[in-house]
Amino acid sequence: MERVDFGWDDYWAEVFRVKYRLSIPGIQQYDEMVVDFCVDALSLRKGKKLLDIACGAGDQSILFAKRGIAVCGFDLSAKLIEVAKAKSGEANLEIDFSTGDMREINFKSQFDAAVLLSHSFGFFNHDENKRVLDGSFNALVKGGKILLDLMNPYNLPRFQKTWTKLEDGFLLSEPHVLDAPAGVLRGRPASFIDVANSRIVDMNEDALAGNDIRMYTALEIKEMLRQVGFSKIELYGQNKLPKMPYAANSERMVVVATK
Ligand SMILES: C[S@@+](CC[C@H](N)C(=O)[O-])C[C@H]1O[C@@H](n2cnc3c(N)ncnc32)[C@H](O)[C@@H]1O
User: Fold this and answer.
1) Engineered SS bond to 221: which of 17, 138, 183, 216, CB 3.0-4.6 Å?
2) What is the pTM for the complete model shown?
3) Cross-strand partners of 192
4) What's the CATH superfamily of 7-152+217-258?
């Protein structure tokens, strides 16, 4: 079999965020639960304006929009934004999807709330991560809220090497590894046995570059949010209702802060 490598946007975004995601049992119910939680924690009502940062293929944006929330979603991946637009079009929903880099958020006092779901925070060095919070702060109206749905650094999932059968081949995912001195969860290369095209696809450097996630502790993230200007910082231990306090063994670390 031929062996090739591809980048995030031209190949892997669709494999992970569309094809693999669809294969996860109960993923739609999971998204519904997360959206219910966000609606409650952010007091989202019909007509409120929400910024979905790193919206991926728009799965949660669409659920928010179905509840009458005015959603603007953006993601670095043009491929995922294309998929998100097609899905929202099929559902007859008006969602403002665009491509963009979360380090360069340019909105000014426009949104009642912003979300970063599925641990979409911590991809960069510390200054750049802080810039994401800065841009989010500027994008919110006074009293607006941000919600970060993160892994709990004290209770990380048990990552395993997995083979997953997708519609046109098999995905091999190597387990993430915690680089404790750096405080970074290192993503590992994945491979896709592309049966339909008789080839093995690996990740190129570009795809691998976006694999790491800085694991901030609650104290660190609170400090960053305060430095940026946020106040009233709340922590929750799960991304579903009922709201649970955050603890060492919590499933998630969900942070909500107010401008
Ligand atoms: C874990 S996925 C989450 C997607 C979606 N929020 C969800 O929960 O399904 C992380 C997303 O971040 C996007 N991303 C990575 N770097 C980014 C950047 N610099 N700016 C905006 N989006 C980025 C990826 O393309 C990917 O869709």
Assistant:
1) 216
2) 0.96
3) 171, 201
4) Vaccinia Virus protein VP39 (3.40.50.150)
Which residue's CA is the nearest one to ligand 1's atom 16?
Answer: 76
Residue 160: how many other CB atoms lie within 10 Å: 9
Please answer whether residues 258 and 143 qualify as being in contact, where contact means their C-beta atoms are separated by less than 8 angstroms: yes
Please tell me the residue having the least CA distance from ligand 1 atom 26. 56
Q: How far apart are CA 95 and CA 242, in angstroms?
A: 28
pLDDT tens string 40-99: 999 999 999 999 999 999 999 999 999 999 999 999 999 999 999 999 999 999 999 999
Identity of residue 213: I
**Residue 76 Cα to ligand 1 middle (Å):** 7
Q: What is the DSSP code (8-state) at residue 54?
A: T
**What is the SS3 assignment for 143?**
strand
To test ligand 1's pocket by mutation, which of 23, 62, 75 has the most ligand atoms within 8 angstroms of CB? 75
Token readout for 142 is 């006074």
